Amino acid sequence: MKKGLLFTICLLLLFSLQACKKKEEQPPVPQTPGQLMPGQMPTGPVSPGQMPPGSTTPGPMPSGQAPPGMMPPGGSQQMVKPGTMPMGKTQVIIPASVKGKWEAAKIVFEDKVLKTKQEYTVKLNSDFAVPNSALKIHIGDFLPDFKMDGLTLTSSSTQPKNPALSIRVFENGKQIFPAPGRQWGWLFSKVPSIHPFEHPKYGITLKEGIKKG
User: pTM for the complete prediction?
Assistant: First the structure.
């Protein structure tokens, strides 16, 4: 009885050793170039099709464009606000189609203390002393379709698409508008919030231009 049991155990050990030997002798799975094992990341340059499924390879950025959050070498970024007037001495060019077609402008004068508004018609290229105040306004040119090209200010058309009036404001003989370094202050009827005349007591806005005849 004991001999039979011992013989059976020996057979089981022999079969187990042969199975382990066959498993160890199995050749490794051949790996084609560019193929990665699961969970393996490539080293060195990445070729098409080498990234594991679900991974992406960043493509080249367009010429002259840097990745998000990165400025190109030696590059700079400049923020430009819409409607920003240029610094320096500007030149107002009145096109032949506009010149002589407008003779005056209507402005609205506001007294913030008394909470009143008064409309005045003022001639172009003239001085206007605001009644019951220490303000004097020098009225310049009217541009029906204001356009800014560098330091040149002109009108794109004869239609009042973007009406603008150039002015200078003096209080007790001292210029208070525009700021130092600027030749003219501009009032825009459709966008009065762009570079407005700012004063603790008074407000001045452009209503419209008046054509000749």
Answer: 0.60
